[in-house]
Design a protein that fits this description.
single chain; Rossmann fold; 2 domains; 7-stranded mixed β-sheet; disordered N terminus; ABC-Purine-Binding; PnrA-like; signal; ABC transporter substrate-binding protein PnrA-like domain-containing protein
Length: 371
């Protein structure tokens, strides 16, 4: 009986995944492009939900931009709520592949190992993974961006806005990606307000609305009057509005979630990369790469400042952003000290991409730990 129940459970789980894997439009496999060929099918694996107001919504906007930019040449599929475990990732991807997907974008760090395995199992399918570092030279690449650029700019806004000189930061995990975010944000804060500090609370989750809001509430109770975040939901922004504080969002334009608190947000324009990649696949020029977009190519950016931002911030943000675009400003340029007051970047030196991704410390001005 237990064996029969187990088989039934597996069948039901598979059925659930198949139902959950959604095509983004009504096209079927019979749809033809203008030259009579089949449109390429592209799958997207999401850890969260497409209406989360943050991380997953930003990726889904990129998916929709891909459809619009390559109208008639591409059909997309997506799966929400994919857990960061090998079995769930592989099951979701295999269902898409069975439905004809020849390209899979895996949009969460924790999908990396499963995607690496899939790239070996399906050599004819192209796999591209967000925020990871693994790849091969045949069908497996990765992508990320210089988020330190808009993070720094958002720090300028926060540093000019705070009255208490206490700024809070809700972080997901103590990882290099987060250290880069917190440090670049803090460097931006300190560039306009040397007396301000940035206090960090970890949630140890990419997507947990309750934990994110709880962490935000703790920072507000500690006297922080501006919050920033590197986590997936709008919880910190909502918490800030409830306490008449202000917020820097992340990933997407979430003004409507907290219109009295939201000032701006570092954002991803994933459609830039998705369109570029699929175009290359269609014309036969794609090769696996470790893509790293920036403000200059439009892959990352800072949203226009809202009425909640300080008036003097726009001119300063515009000035530094223009230098970033021209290549005349590098965020991690010394002298930079860590929390212990030790020089970690010498005066005049600018860290390159490889050096940035080896950052394992928090800079002077940050209150919190790397664990």
């Amino acid at each position: 009986m237990k064996k029969i129940f187990s088989i039934f459970a597996v069948m039901m789980c598979t059925l659930f995944l198949m139902v959950g894997c959604s095509a983004s439009n009504d096209k079927t496999s019979d749809t033809k492009t203008s030259d009579g060929s089949e449109p390429i099918k592209v799958g997207f694996l999401y850890i969260g939900h497409i209406n989360d107001g943050g991380f997953t919504q930003a990726h889904d906007k990129g998916r929709l931009a891909l459809e619009e930019n390559l109208k008639g040449k591409v059909e997309t599929l997506y799966q929400e709520g994919v857990a960061e475990n090998t079995q769930d990732v592989k099951n979701s991807a295999k269902i898409m592949i069975d439905q004809g997907a020849s390209v899979i974008f895996a949009t969460s760090f924790g999908f990396m190992d499963a995607i690496e395995e899939l790239s070996k199992e399906y050599p004819d399918v192209k796999f591209i993974h967000f925020s990871g570092y693994k790849m091969n030279d045949t069908n497996f690449g990765n992508y990320f961006g210089a988020m330190e650029e808009p993070r720094y700019l958002s720090g300028i806004v926060a540093g000019l806005k705070t009255k208490s000189n206490k700024i809070g930061f809700v972080g997901a995990f103590p990882l290099p990606e987060l250290f880069i975010s917190i440090n670049s944000f803090t460097l931006g804060v300190k560039s306009v307000n040397p007396d301000a500090t940035v206090q960090v609370v970890w949630t140890n989750s990419w997507y947990d609305p309750a934990k994110e809001k709880e962490a935000a509430d703790a920072l507000l109770a500690a006297g922080c009057d501006v919050l920033a975040q590197h986590c997936d939901t709008t919880g910190p922004q909502v918490a800030a509005e409830e306490k008449n504080a202000f917020a820097i969002g992340y990933n997407s334009d979430s003004y409507d979630s907290a219109p009295k608190a939201f000032m701006t947000a570092p954002i991803w324009n994933h459609g830039v990369f998705y369109t570029k990649t699929v175009e290359e696949i269609l014309n036969g020029t794609w090769k696996p790469e470790s893509y790293y977009g920036n403000i200059a190519d439009g892959y990352v950016d800072l949203l226009p400042l809202t009425e909640n931002a300080p008036e003097e911030a726009k001119a300063k943000v515009d000035e530094i952003k223009a230098k970033m675009v021209s290549g005349d400003f590098k965020v991690f340029t010394g002298p930079i000290k860590n929390q212990a007051g030790e020089v970690v970047v010498e005066e005049g030196k600018s860290l390159n991409r490889e050096e940035i991704w080896k950052i394992d410390y928090l800079v002077d001005g940050v209150i919190g730990t790397t664990k």
